[in-house]
Amino acid sequence: MLHWLKHYQRAMLPGDISAGIVVAMMMIPQGMAYALVAGLPPVVGIYASIVPPALYALFGTSSTQSVGPMAIISLMTASALAPLAAPGSALYTMLAAQLALISGAVLLLCGLLRIGFIANFFSRPVMSGFTIGSSVVIALGQLPALLGARLPEFHLPSALLGVGSLVLLLLARSRLAPLLRRLKLPPTAADIGAKLAPMVVVLGATALVPLLGLEARGVHTTGSVPTGLPLITLGVSHAHWQALLQPALLIGFMVFLISMSGAQTLALKRAEKLHSNKELIGLGAANLGSALTGGFPVTGSISRSAVNFAAGANTQLASLITAALLALALVAPTGWLALMPLPTLAATIIVAVLGMLDTTTLRTAWRFDRADAAALVATAAGVLVLGVEAGVVIGVALSMGALIWRASRPHIAVLGRIAGTEHFRNIARYQAVTAPDLLMLRVDAGLFFGNVEAVNARIEDELAARPGTRNLVLVLSAVNEVDTSALFALTELNGMLKGRGIGLHLAEVKGPVMDRLKHSELLPVLNGRVFLSTAMAWDALADVKLYE
To answer: What is the distance between the alpha carbons of residues 295 and 306, in angstroms, rounded to a whole number?
Structure first.
């Protein structure tokens, strides 16, 4: 906060004010709706939208990040707490705050220990699969509220209101912005107007409740919303610490991942630099603030942050303005909030999560890397079939598994010389000349315990295919590391080749790798030489005249 306050200019104020107002208008129905997804009273969603963004503004580094309730985190909260307490009960509400407390503490600790790099182990396809699965689960979970009853039954007044709201929101999502542009509104204003459609639909539906007597007809509303700001308090259940620890770790991980995903995208548009470890601290503080004010786990919302950006937010002051306006909404009479119909709130949730269905990543992964596409589908299926937490675990396991699988099977190229040059290329891709008694292999990965067996197997295959080989050159231009297991494997390979009358040579060894090899026993017993370049190895070991 000290950084952006120090550089604040008066010209930034109008943009921050407009963004703060726009996001506050979004947050009222959205926050209440996401609280319902989490199994909490609607007002808790507003509680979680006041202190958390203010604390993030103090410690976070994104100028446009909007922190508060978010659909996926709300679903994970409900999934974690449903086995422990009845949704909406006092214990359930307390455990939700306790979950935010643990998640916030974990995020804060990770930031202080500077381990923000952990987010890199969750691939984009897996993240997309998790988002798709969670979106479908959330949308299906809102059908009873949308229709006023569980399928195949429905409550006609609730269904008419819910489905009508859903249709209006879908039309606004696809048609309103182009319509506003045709009415000569600037593109940014048209986009913001379309984003505010949920608020307009909710207000319209709320007005219909007393006009048509919908409550008397059986349409459920949010009910009484207490007036006043949330109290600073912290109640915990000592019996549930262990049960909450694992889901809190997963939620904390997803909070960071989702927040960084949206914030990075917007930061690139302004050439801003985000600091992952400071983001961890900011998000940790936000969740601790939510815990202390009766909220539940919060994160940066991709959609709200985009609206904040489009509405002109220049600094975190926009988030402070949003928080102040939401606080005023609770201080003012809240009777109108109690009349919000649940079918319309369900419609806003369904439309919001449908916008998170990412098919682009699936199509790209299917064309580019089928393993990534399979991981995406498996993660989505895991969320749908086994639950949200299991989906996260499956996603992380698949990300790490794919990384290990690829690392354990390094690309190895047989090199030949491009005629008339000193360039050496993969003979499978280029018309390159090879020598009958010289085998040159380029290993395109670091050598470590996970891939040495695969490298040795490939060397044996190539030697078997070329029985006339008298010299083997390992081109290590792409090798950045050789661990102890790989060192032993090279030493054993050297001894084996020596016994077969084949020289083992190294070429283009990088400086850091050579520094380590100099302190090993390999070089003194090497059954060959170390060459500065592949061309030098060729000139020394092949009959150059035969190939020029």
So the answer is: 23
* CA-based torsion, 102, 54, 43, 202: positive or negative: negative
Order the strands of the 471-475 sheet from edge to edge.
424-426, 412-417, 438-443, 471-475, 503-507, 530-531
Q: Are 39 and 87 in contact (CB under 8 A)?
A: yes
**What phi, psi does 297 have (nearest 5°)?**
-55, 140
Rounded Cα distance, 277 and 108, in Å = 9
Region of 312 please: left (phi>0), alpha (psi -120 to 50) or beta: left
For residue 468, the 8-state DSSP code is: T
Query: Which residues are within 8 A (CB) of 123 and not within 5 positions of it... i.e. 6 or more apart?
Result: 372, 375, 399, 402
Say if CB 280 and CB 111 are below 8 A apart.
Answer: yes
Closest-CA residue to 334 (of 405, 440, 228): 228
Burial class (CB in 10 A: 0-12, 13-18, 19+), 182: exposed
Q: Dump pLDDT digits (tens) for 62-74.
A: 888 899 999 889 9
**Contact criterion met (CB below 8 Å) for 91 and 85:** yes
Q: Residues near 355 by Cβ (< 8 Å), separated by ≥ 6?
A: 173, 303
Q: Which helix (H) or strand (E) holds 417?
A: strand 412-417
Per DSSP, 521 falls in state: S
Q: What is the pLDDT of residue 548?
A: 41
State the CB neighbour count (10 A cutoff) for residue 343: 28
For residue 547, pLDDT beyond 80: no
Provide the 8-state DSSP code for 174: I
Please tell me whether the peptide bond between 152 and the residue prior to it is cis, using omega within 30 degrees of 0. yes
3-state DSSP call for residue 414? strand
The closest of 25, 413, 316 to 198, measured between CA atoms, is 25
Cα separation, 401 vs 418, whole angstroms: 38
Q: What's the rounded Cα separation, in Å, for the pair 78 and 87?
A: 8
How many Cβ atoms sit within 10 Å of the Cβ of residue 270?
Answer: 12
Given this model, what pLDDT does residue 414 score?
94
Query: What is the pTM (predicted TM-score) of this model?
Result: 0.76
Please, are residues 504 and 510 in contact by the beta-carbon 8 Å criterion? Answer: no
Q: What are phi and psi of 521, to 5 degrees?
A: -95, 5
Q: What is the rounded distance in angstroms from the CA atom of residue 542 to the CA atom of residue 548? A: 11
In this predicted model, what pLDDT tens digit does every residue of 109-138 receive, in sequence order?
A: 999 988 877 766 667 788 888 888 888 888
Give the CA distances from residue 286 to residues 108, 297, 299, 403, in Å, rounded to whole numbers and listed in that order.
10, 9, 8, 32
Q: Kindly give the interhelix angle for 156-171 and 197-212, rounded to the nearest 10 degrees.
A: 150
Judge contact between 260 and 124, C-beta under 8 A: no
Radius of gyration of the chain (CA): 30
Query: Do residues 298 and 115 lie in contact, with contact meaning Cβ atoms separated by under 8 Å?
Result: no
Name the pairing type of β-strands 67-68 and 299-300: antiparallel
Cα angle: 67, vertex 70, 76; to 5 degrees: 125
Q: List, in order of start, the domains of the chain with CATH numbers.
A: 2-223+231-404 (no CATH), 412-546 (3.30.750.24)
**What tens digit of pLDDT does each residue of 457-478 get?**
999 999 999 998 999 999 999 9
